[in-house]
């Protein structure tokens, strides 16, 4: 009995039969659908054109055949279907007694014109598609440089992040997050840059760089916030000569630290939405009574007050930007973020973030109008082995099925199964 196997490699499918490998192009679903529909139209019009009386000319409808192949991926499909459509025109015109009339070449010419137009427009579409892919690739690279993935684990914390830009086809915007391991403490930042476009990206890069430096240099959390504000103000002063609206640029932010040896989280709010916390069945906002001004507006040292909240093992923090709270549905109702978080808080951080982002998109009708960033942090009781292996470094990749490298949540799913 001959054993046959099929292997898909890139755009080709390889079939092996009796040790002999035969390669043929893999057909995409949309190309297959286009060919099936165009073939159905070709056969239907041709057969019906032969059946109806000679004074009813249906062959003109065959111009739909090359037009329907516009969804196909290659030129060969359009040319082949056009050639078959020309044969159909000849058959119908011959049956109508018009093989020598000028109607036949006119019908064929119409098919050829449509074929050429389809090929030209497909070429233009392919050029635009390649350009869009290149732009998205640059955007993804820029996002990875600006917002590199946070470690899945830092000391006794499990961390997951999600980010969605409101700009169409973009992967980067003005929402930022960062985390740094400092001795026996994890310091974190989440912020929202006012405005959008390249100016917002520039400000986001500046505040992340300032945080990474200040988190290791400054001992007290309020000093970190002061350093961030000073850094943003310096940046505003630098760009004020070329940007008349520079004075209106600021960043709302939460600056946090989570010590290893105390079950607390210390928070300084710089005009940013309060984070959420789950503790068992209870879910609440960590309300900061007196937030400091946003970064860049020159708050003094007394404004940056540290607020301390309990953060026990198995508790989860959800840090987020205002896009999570301000997204509306078609009726104008805000997204019920706290209620949704309460339903999903027991999930692992990776699943929590995924499901919240998916639910938010559904609530918004498929299109979120504002940048959204979320960071889920869960405190675990770290064992001695885990403590020795984490140290704030990104988790090592785990080999998944078929040698595919999985990270974070995907790796956990692979290990479960």
TrEMBL record:
| InterPro entries assigned to the protein according to its UniProt record, in alphabetical order | Bact_Sigma-Reg (IPR052016), PPM-type-like_dom_sf (IPR036457), PPM-type_phosphatase-like_dom (IPR001932)
Q: Which domain of life is it from?
A: Bacteria
Q: What keywords tag this UniProt record?
A: Hydrolase, Membrane, Transmembrane, Transmembrane helix
Q: What is its EC number?
A: 3.1.3.16
Region (Disordered) residue spans: 383-404
Sequence intervals crossing the membrane: 32-51, 103-121
Q: For this protein, what is any one GO molecular function term? A: protein serine/threonine phosphatase activity
Keyword Nucleus tagged: no
Q: Which Pfam families match?
A: SpoIIE
Annotated PPM-type phosphatase domain residues: 154-379
Q: Under what name is this protein listed?
A: PP2C family protein-serine/threonine phosphatase
Q: Which organism is it from?
A: Streptomyces kaempferi
